[in-house]
Amino acid sequence: MEVNTEIGPEFNENSKFYEILTRTRSIIISGEINQKVAERVLRQLLYLQELSTDPIKVFLNTQGGHVESGDTIYDMFRFVKPEIIVIGSGWVASAGITIYLGAKKENRYSLPNTRYLIHQPSGGVRGQATDIQIEAAELVKTRKRINELISRETGQPLEKVERDTERNFWMSAEEAQKYGIVSKIITNISELKI
């Protein structure tokens, strides 16, 4: 296997690295969330489900991205038979929060220096006034749905979540734990309850 010293081993379905992740039932979600990432994660989840119903570890480090792609991964976390154990690393922001909250509360772990960001969805729409009105109405519905999801999954009152997501609301791992996003902050893989 060729190794690029700048980015490490090549990651594709034919690589040794991919084999190791499959054997350890691990998935890495990193970078911008988009349709391509969602499709890859769904494929991995379904494949691992067919191998075994043992838990799947998901390592999450993302600035967020496409709302519906995040929703897709959230829904699949709930859909597959194996328990999903999510470990936040670096940052978990925007659509990444939706993904993170897809794991059961007791399965939401964080590394100590991870930061969390909740906020309202943003959009950039151009076109005819009628189309802009339609997109604005959809954005309002999306915001309401995401706020309700955050409230339900954290136990925070909806009114508080609505206030907090009015602008960027950053949290440290400890603050995210108090908020109800994170269940446990860990420093070593041996601390995972698997």
Mind explaining what this structure looks like?
This protein is of the alpha/beta class and 194 residues long. It has seven helices and nine strands. The strands form two sheets. Strands 3, 4, 5, 6, 7, 8 and 9 form a seven-stranded mixed beta sheet that branches. It has a two-stranded antiparallel sheet with strand order 1-2. The radius of gyration is 17 Å and the shape is globular. The model is unreliable at 1-10 (pLDDT under 50).
List keywords for this structure.
194 residues; alpha/beta; 7-stranded mixed β-sheet; two-stranded antiparallel ribbon; 23% strand; globular; disordered N terminus
Helix content: 40-55%
**Structural class of the helices, strands and pairings?**
alpha/beta
Main sheet characteristics? 7 strands, mixed
Number of strands: 9
Rg result:
17 Å
Distance between the termini: 31 Å
Average pLDDT for all residues = 89
Strand content: 15-25%
* Overall body shape: globular
Which spans have pLDDT < 50 for at least 5 consecutive residues? 1-10
User: What is the element string, with H for helices and E for strands?
Assistant: EEHEHEHEHEEHHEHE
Supply the number of helical segments: 7
Short description:
This protein has helices at residues 16-23, 35-51, 67-79, 95-100, 129-154, 158-164, 173-179; strands spanning 3-4, 8-9, 26-33, 56-65, 84-93, 108-110, 115-118, 169-172, 184-185. Helix content is 43%, strand content 23%.
